Structures are given as C-alpha cells and as structure tokens.
Amino acid sequence: MTNKYLHKEVREKGGAYGGGAGGGLPGLFNFYSYRDPNSMETVQAFHNAVIWATRATFTQQDIDEAKLAMFSQVQHLYAEAPNFVFITKTSVLKYDMETMTRLLEWIF
What is the number of domains present in the chain? Predict the structure, then answer.
C-alpha cells in the first residue's frame, strides 16, 4: 500500500516528506505521514487507500515485493538489536534470529 498507492498520493501529490502504512501490534494497522503540509488531505488519502486496497488486483510480484519490504524492515531492526521483542497488552514475545529465519522461510 505504501509503495503502490500512498507514496504517490501523500508524498508526490501532497508534498509530505514521507508517509505510509503498515501493521504494528496484533490487530492494529497504522497510517502515518511526516513533515506534511496538507495533513487534512492526507487523512482523506488514507481513507482512499483502504478503498483502493479492497478493489485492487495484486499480482504475485506485488505480493513478493510487499513481503520483501516488510522483512527489510525486520532485517534493519535485527542489525540494531539481535533479539526482537514485541510487547502486547497480554504478553511479551521474544524472537531470536533463528526463529525469525524460520518465519521468513515459512512465508517465502
């Protein structure tokens, strides 16, 4: 969604320095922008992105690119801290590199 829709709408058309969307804690999905001179239009772009996502047809290449983008963020996090910690209201989940590698192999 970030690369296929929001970049064009929020950054190129709206003039924000950056923005995007993604999952966070289980059950949450985030939209964000920063250095955004047109924040009200960006809120509308977020709404339109949901509509776009429900109507779009995605190729296998689109899906693979989205997975790679997601896990490039995880790889960056691992470079900073060798254990992943996710905190939710009910638990703290810790993942080492071996676990993350198995997860990546399962997804791809």
Answer: 2
